[in-house]
Each structure stands twice: as C-alpha cells, then as structure tokens.
C-alpha cells in the first residue's frame, strides 16, 4: 500500500521532492520535479518511507508514511465509543514548519489519497482528504524532560544528601 498526494502548485517556483534515500540525506541529484510553476503533480510514498518537498524560500514539507504507528496522545483510548479516526489502521504524518497533519486511513489494496496545494505565498494548504481522516496536531520540535530543566543561576540539579 502507498499514499498518494495530489499537489497543486500556485507558487512562483517549481516544487521538487527528495524521495526516501535509505535514511541518507537526500542529494540535489535525487530531486524530482513534482509540480511545475502553476501546475500539478503527484507524490507517491511507500509504507515505512518518506519524502521531502522543497518549497523555495519557505522550507520543507516532510511526508512520513508510518504504517500502523499511532500518536497515542491524540486518540480517545478510554471512551465508550471511539471516533472513526481512532479505528483507522494506517498513519501518515505531514510536517511543515511547526504544524503537523496527522492522517489516518484504512488498510487497503488501493493507495490512500489526499489533495494539497501550495498557494501564491508558499503556504501548504490541505484541500481534500480522499481516504480516511486528518487532524491538525502540534508536536514538540524538541522535547526536554522535566528532570533536565535548569535551576536558578548558581544552583545545581543534584539531589541533596
């Protein structure tokens, strides 16, 4: 099973995708044109892989197909009637700047699909979810456990004896 993202480009630059490269940093030679300026394209990502879409001047959109993983903190684990979103088996995560799209969809022989666009300002827009459901989530960019929080200047984090 794959995920397929139909991408409409309304930005003043063509968009490039850097496909999964076995965990190695993608090189410029690997870039594939995904959407011409004022055009459309298609991104296909296999389970367990990812793709990086370069949006000139704005940064990168990371597309991760994570299969049967879940973001447990998002689900209604203890309710009597879980939402349909909680019942979908497959997961993809799209990350752009400090916002994430958590996309869940059923396991199927067909590709799971959604539609994105990049507007005139370089903003990524979710146009339509064709398979499953998606939620906007915010994941921490850098998690620091409370045990590592710094104390006041001149103090230490050591336990008193």
Q: Brief overview, please?
A:
Helix content is 2%, strand content 44%. The protein has 1 helix and 11 strands, in the order E-E-E-E-E-E-H-E-E-E-E-E.
Architecture overview:
The protein is mostly beta strands. It is 2% helix and 44% strand. The protein contains one helix and eleven strands, in the order ββββββαβββββ. The protein has a seven-stranded antiparallel beta sheet with strand order 3-2-5-6-7-8-11. A four-stranded mixed beta sheet has the order 4-1-9-10, with no helix packed on it. A hairpin with a 3-residue loop joins β5 (50-55) and β6 (59-67). The chain is globular and about 45 Å long. It starts with a strand and ends in a 24-residue tail after the last strand. The model has no long low-confidence stretch (mean pLDDT 87).
Short key terms for the protein model shown above:
161 residues, mainly beta, 7-stranded antiparallel sheet, 4-stranded mixed sheet, globular
Q: Termini distance?
A: 57 Å
DSSP, total strands: 11
Unreliable spans are none
What is the oligomer described by this structure?
Answer: single chain
Q: Summarize the biggest pleated sheet.
A: 7 strands, antiparallel
β content, as a range?
A: 35-45%
List the helices and strands in order: EEEEEEHEEEEE
Specify Rg, calculated over alpha carbons.
Answer: 19 Å
The helix count comes to 1
In terms of structural class, how would the helical and strand content be classed?
mainly beta
Shape assignment: globular
Q: Average pLDDT value? A: 87
Strand neighbour order, sheet with most strands = 3-2-5-6-7-8-11
Helix content bin: under 10%
């Amino acid at each position: 099973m794959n995920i397929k993202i139909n991408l409409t480009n309304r930005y003043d630059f063509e968009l490039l995708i850097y496909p999964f490269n076995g965990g190695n940093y993608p090189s410029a030679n690997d870039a594939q044109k995904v959407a011409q300026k004022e055009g459309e394209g298609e991104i296909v990502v296999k389970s367990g892989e990812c793709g990086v879409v370069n949006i000139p001047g704005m940064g990168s959109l990371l597309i991760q197909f994570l299969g049967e993983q879940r973001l447990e903190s998002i689900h209604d684990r203890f309710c009597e009637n879980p939402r349909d979103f909680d019942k979908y088996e497959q997961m993809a995560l799209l990350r752009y700047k400090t916002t994430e799209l958590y996309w869940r969809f059923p396991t199927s022989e067909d590709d799971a699909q959604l539609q994105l666009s990049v507007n005139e300002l370089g903003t990524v827009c979710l146009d339509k979810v064709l398979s499953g459901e998606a939620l906007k989530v915010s994941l921490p960019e850098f998690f620091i456990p409370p045990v590592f929080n710094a104390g006041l200047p001149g103090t230490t984090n050591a336990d008193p004896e």
